[in-house]
Amino acid sequence: MLVIRPLQMTDLDDLYQMAAEAGKGLTSLPADRELLERKIQQTRATFEQDCAPEAGLYLFALDDTEQGRCVGVSGIQARVGLDEVFYNYRLSNMVNASKELGVHVQTPTLHLTNDMTATTEICSLLLSAAYRKGGNGLLLSRCRFMYLDDFRSYFSDKVFAEMRGVSDAQGRSPLWDALGSRFFDMEFGEADYLTGVGGTSFIAELMPKYPIYIPLLPAAARAVIGQVHENTVPALNMLQAEGFNFNGLVDVFDGGPVVEAFVRNIRTVRDSMNRHVLIRHRPVNVDVPPEDRVMVANRSFGEFRVTTVPAACLSPDTISLSQEIADQLRVESGDSVRLVRLKERARADR
Asked: Is 109 in contact with 213 (CB distance < 8 Å)?
């Protein structure tokens, strides 16, 4: 069985292995054991309420209960830019005109901004290659929206995701080579790593404060602004299906797009419902396709659990669970749970 739960220190080895396999470009989870250990410690402090929930880091593990290992991770940063300044480039236009000469020129530019400060970020989506099937990625990504909905007071009304930008197999970014490398005496991978470990002050110290004229950049750099890495396309598609849209901001290093949505407009939030648990002492046929499954969340702040069950278990007032599934969710008969379809049916099926 696959179950979403809070990340634990026992997941460190599995998390490190997944981060190493992901390679360069996953800024929030670099392959650094000490950093990953600190992130798990911060996560535990958040779920155990040893820090203010509004300042917490919420990392969720996808647990293969049969294998006894973490096979995926996703996260929520309650507020960005409160401890370290959070930077993006905003795509904009600079207009120059002369009525006398009949000239009107619009020049696309990049402006360094801190527009997302104090906004909630969904981040750190990472799934082991062997599990990228059967709707597992949907479960890992969308469980976060169920958590946001139940504990809205701790998060901003708007949430965003910074998508991984284009880089090659060696971890080289065309935008970095054309722009960032002119101001930083380091490779893209090193700068990206420093951002991941929280050292963003060098951006303010070294990055130009004036607009960057995009037409002055090489064609290869211009082409990747606002584009995602090929491995990130599925994650972007999932977010767009949830109602996220490009907001005009891009990453300062690789040019990856920033997408955002208001929590109330996210599909998972909008379509979710509450039901009471009814435990049936008979096995449940769990071998059904993703479009015939529903996600079930136990609505607990510190012991959050989510799994999927067949939609046939749903009735107008209750959701029928086997004792095994109820134990994994840590719920009993009569408890209130939140649920939503794992995957929307195609229009032709409605």
From this structure: yes
